[in-house]
Amino acid sequence: MKLAELQPRIEGFIRTKLDDQSATVTGLGPGGGHAGFSYLFTANRAAGSNRYFLRLPPPNVKWEGTADVLRQATVLQALDGTDVPHARVLWSGDDLEWFDCPYLVQEFVEGSVIQADTFTDLTPETAQRMARQSMAALAGIHRLDPALCAYLGEFTGFEFDVTRWDRFYERAAEQGQLAKQPEVRRLLLEKTPHDARIGVYHGDFQWANLMFLPDGTLSAVIDFELCGIGATLNDVGWICAFNDPAAWPADRSPRMPHGDELEAMYREAWGGALPDVRWFRALAMYKFSIISGFNLMLHRRGKRDDPHWEEMIPSMKANMDYAYQMLTS
Fold this sequence. Notes:
By secondary structure, this protein is an alpha+beta fold.
């Protein structure tokens, strides 16, 4: 939806929700993120101004999976009253009168994610503090009562977590980089965990989805597009593998603590053992190597222009090799 078309819709929405027909909307612009359409805007009233974040599903798609913004609202609302920093949901719904689609409006939260141009002078001590807060927040998400998030559905099983990537592998580019895929797939199915905890998971818990203030204080966990009910250790394996240099080409040097340190921080925050965590690290890199190949295919066929995936070709083999090592050593 173009901004010129969206502006009066947001203004009508805000005037109704705030019960203030004099309210105006300014500063409307893209809100960032990678799933769905998101916008930032300011609502101005006599009493003052407030900044908001609006997320809508992308056009011409089914409102399910990552395009179902109400999935995110479900988890975010369940986090209210917990110690997990997050942007509160102010309004959400599937009434179509405002935007012709479901919507999610959150309060605006100050902060930045860790990127090449942010936190450039990060000290090891601050990085440790940021990581410890993050893993405590992750444990807090995992403590949510799944009954509060019944909208997310039910756990589909460990086998599905492995086999769902088959069709993406079949279409991936540079399959020579994924030579170990059949063996890793076999080992993942053979070594499927049986006692891993099932609960609410984030789905993409990594530094790009964690906002920090300049002093390193965690201000919000964001982007719950991939949330669901399943093995909570999926999140632990994901962030730990992404921060293990052994999973990446030799020229990758992570700025945050090593994955082993993050695992220890989570174990302390959770207060218990983490059975089969190496299996989840393996699954994380198995998935990401295939995702890289699939996105590279989309780029090369002109379906989604993103040359970043050309740069990821060496990582595809490193990721798959790491998965194999986690399952065999």
